[in-house]
């Protein structure tokens, strides 16, 4: 169900179960985590996450949800997959086409960048079934869109289109082909991409983050100067 292909500096990870709108079963979560973390960021600095068949991801497969014997463990499994995306050594770009629902929204939230096509739609419909997004959604959603927008989306279950998702900050861009954004990012220096991701993801104190920022800049500057020196030899 998780299909991986490599094309130069971009690895494409496809949720490939179109007959179920790419809904995720427990084993799929483990495979997804492996696909986004088992990557050399120097060779492949960008992972592009997409869905097959005109949809991104319908979230958790409801047949699997109804058969879960340990629901807390199931939630933890999804959280581990989302955390693997967030902690990937590569920059992870979600290309959202068609429907992103529930856990699909949560996996997109874990990505470093979300790019929607004009036909993309987003919703957290769990409350309709007496559930909610427990793959890190209640943690990441308010961080990305703010508490007010997060409350609206999660409590109403309503569907938002690409333009509204852009307005609220749920996605960073709307593009006909989101992969072009992944390729655009991959043209930059892998070492700088990794440092920028690490610094922006850091949730330590301001003082500690500023110290780490300065140290990281110094390391990159040394490489930058070395590159200039070698180009002049």
UniProtKB/TrEMBL annotation:
GO molecular function, one term: catalytic activity
One matching Pfam family: ECH_1
InterPro entries to which the protein is assigned, alphabetical: ClpP/crotonase-like_dom_sf, Enoyl-CoA_hyd/isom_CS, Enoyl-CoA_hydra/iso
PROSITE patterns: ENOYL_COA_HYDRATASE (PS00166)
Family (UniProt): Belongs to the enoyl-CoA hydratase/isomerase family.
Protein name: Enoyl-CoA hydratase/carnithine racemase
């Amino acid at each position: 169900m998780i299909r991986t292909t490599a094309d130069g500096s971009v690895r494409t990870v496809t949720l490939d179960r179109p007959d179920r709108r790419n809904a995720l079963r427990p084993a799929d979560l483990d495979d997804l985590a492996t696909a986004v973390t088992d990557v050399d960021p120097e060779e492949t600095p960008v992972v592009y996450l997409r869905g097959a068949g005109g949809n991104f991801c319908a979230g958790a497969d409801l047949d699997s949800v109804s058969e879960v014997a340990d629901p807390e463990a199931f939630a933890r499994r999804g959280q581990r997959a989302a955390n693997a995306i967030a902690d990937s050594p590569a920059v992870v770009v979600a290309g959202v086409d068609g429907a992103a629902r529930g856990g699909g929204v949560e996996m997109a939230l874990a990505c470093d960048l979300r790019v929607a096509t004009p036909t993309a739609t987003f919703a957290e419909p769990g409350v309709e079934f007496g559930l909610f997004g427990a793959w890190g959604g209640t943690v990441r959603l308010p961080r990305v869109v703010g508490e007010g927008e997060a409350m609206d989306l999660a409590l109403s279950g309503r569907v938002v289109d690409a333009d509204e998702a852009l307005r609220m900050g749920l996605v960073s861009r709307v593009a006909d082909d989101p992969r072009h954004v992944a390729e655009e990012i991959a043209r930059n220096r892998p070492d700088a991409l990794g440092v920028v991701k690490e610094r922006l993801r850091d949730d330590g104190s301001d003082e500690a983050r500023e110290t780490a920022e300065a140290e990281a800049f110094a390391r990159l500057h040394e490489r930058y100067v070395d590159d200039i020196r070698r180009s002049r030899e």
